[in-house]
């Protein structure tokens, strides 16, 4: 009997096995994860779960009954340590091995502890990262009313954690390596809007690079180029590093991610890669792209299953992500560059507007802020040449642009 092994325990991995069974695959199917929890969605970790509004049962992909009823063998709490590609076998940390006809790598990412070396004090009690459910459980226990929280980094995870901690009654300081959070990704206009949003809600955002953390007199001391300050809890939100070590043991082509084609096949035709680690060729954008977002995990999981069952499909969708911070709900679609110009449609003061990014007259991306049911329309505008004045004109219906 043919055997497919999925290595990883996140949303992408769960999407692969779900879609394989949906498409009628009847062979042996095994999912291996170094986490002990059932595969789950990660966005709630920095939002609803951290605020105490959601519990793991709310965001697991399937309960244990589903896996047993669909003949999916779960190997949880055991890490893969090597892939013997010629023998088509995965070696596990418990001494066991699992053979495969096809292997899907969905090993995800881990939190960065520093660019070149781990930041001093990263392993002290009270210093956290946020990538897994266990990370989130530990962090939620430590964040209480009046807790002094320091967030090192001002990317999406850092700003979402800052918002959640503040909404939980903590006092929050964000150490941002740039004057304007996320400006290198989305430009200063939206970055300033996000900065002002946090400041209005009492978050202390400081432009400073953190050199290290020490423990003193029962609390933590954060040292930065803007001085030192006390904290009860520190969250390191300095980005993520794709887990490529297993792909490298298999001898796969790796370049910032596992290089895969439009069907997600790697340089070894028996091995596919999905999710955070996949440097996938996107036929819509005509380039390789590595995307670390919820929507991509689902779509690539389904595409991998399609490829494995003989369908002729490809990675042709625009990147999408969403964020929730305080009273901001935002959906973004496309792929903008820092030097793109921005066009605002609507009134930012009202908190309800659309932002477009353009290269010349070409719309490269769009985001709806607190405006529902327009994302599908925005998708149709990305890639088109539209005059900036028309984009900004609220008298022109979006569908008429």
Tell me the quaternary state. single chain
Main sheet: strand order: 3-2-1-7-19
- Sketch the major β-sheet: 5 strands, parallel
What percent strand? 25-35%
CATH topology (level 3) name of the largest domain: FAD/NAD(P)-binding domain
Query: Which residues form runs of ≥5 with pLDDT under 50?
Result: none
Question: Based on CA inertia axes, which overall geometry fits?
Answer: globular
| Class from secondary-structure proportions | alpha/beta
Determine the number of helices (DSSP H or I, runs of at least 4 residues).
11
Query: Percent range for helical residues?
Result: 10-25%
Number of strands: 26
Overall tally of structural domains: 3
- The pLDDT mean sits at 94
Task: Give a topology summary.
Elements: E1 3-7, H1 11-22, E2 28-33, H2 56-59, H3 64-69, E3 72-76, E4 80-84, E5 89-92, E6 97-99, E7 102-105, E8 109-111, E9 127-128, H4 133-142, E10 148-152, H5 156-167, E11 171-176, H6 183-186, H7 188-200, E12 204-207, E13 210-216, E14 219-224, E15 227-231, E16 233-236, E17 240-242, H8 245-249, E18 258-260, E19 271-273, E20 278-282, E21 287-289, H9 294-308, E22 320-325, E23 328-334, E24 341-347, E25 352-359, E26 362-369, H10 375-381, H11 388-392
Parallel strand pairs: 1-2, 1-7, 2-3, 7-19, 9-16, 10-11, 10-16, 11-12, 18-20
Antiparallel strand pairs: 4-5, 5-6, 8-17, 13-14, 14-15, 20-21, 22-23, 23-26, 24-25, 25-26
Helix pairs in contact: 1-9
């Amino acid at each position: 009997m043919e055997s497919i092994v999925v290595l990883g325990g996140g949303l992408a991995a769960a999407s692969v096995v779900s879609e394989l069974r949906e498409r009628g695959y009847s062979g042996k199917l095994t999912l291996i994860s170094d986490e002990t929890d059932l595969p789950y969605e990660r966005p709630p970790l920095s939002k609803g779960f951290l605020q105490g509004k959601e519990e793991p049962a709310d965001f697991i992909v399937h309960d244990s009954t589903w896996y047993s009823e669909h003949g999916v063998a779960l190997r949880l709490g055991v890490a893969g340590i090597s892939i013997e590609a010629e023998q088509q076998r995965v070696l596990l940390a418990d001494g066991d091995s699992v053979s495969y006809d096809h292997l899907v790598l969905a090993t995800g990412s881990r939190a960065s502890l520093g660019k070149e070396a781990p930041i001093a004090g990263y392993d002290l009690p009270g210093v956290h990262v946020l990538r897994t459910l266990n990370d989130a459980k530990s962090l939620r226990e430590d964040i209480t009313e009046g807790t002094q929280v320091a967030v090192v980094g001002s990317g999406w995870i850092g700003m979402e954690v800052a918002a959640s901690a503040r909404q939980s009654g903590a006092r929050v300081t964000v150490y941002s390596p740039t004057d304007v959070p996320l400006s290198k990704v989305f430009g200063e206009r939206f970055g300033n809007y996000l900065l002002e949003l946090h400041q209005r809600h009492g978050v202390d955002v400081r432009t400073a690079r953190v050199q290290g953390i020490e423990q003193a007199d029962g609390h933590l001391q954060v040292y930065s180029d803007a001085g030192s300050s006390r904290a009860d809890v520190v969250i390191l939100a300095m980005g993520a590093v794709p887990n490529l070590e297993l792909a490298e043991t298999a001898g796969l082509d790796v370049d910032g991610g596992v290089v895969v084609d439009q069907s997600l096949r790697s340089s070894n035709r028996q091995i596919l890669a999905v999710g955070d680690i996949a440097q996938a060729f996107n036929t819509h954008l005509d380039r390789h792209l590595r995307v670390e977002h919820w929507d991509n995990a689902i779509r690539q999981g389904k595409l991998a299953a399609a490829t494995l069952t003989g369908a002729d499909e490809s990675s042709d969708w625009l990147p999408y992500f969403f964020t929730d911070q305080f009273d901001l709900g935002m959906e973004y679609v496309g792929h903008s560059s820092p030097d793109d110009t921005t066009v605002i449609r609507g009134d930012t003061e009202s908190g309800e507007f659309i932002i477009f990014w353009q290269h010349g007259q070409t719309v490269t991306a769009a985001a709806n802020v607190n405006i529902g049911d327009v994302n599908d329309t925005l998708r149709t505008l990305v890639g088109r040449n539209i005059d900036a004045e028309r984009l900004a004109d609220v008298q022109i219906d979006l569908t008429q642009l």
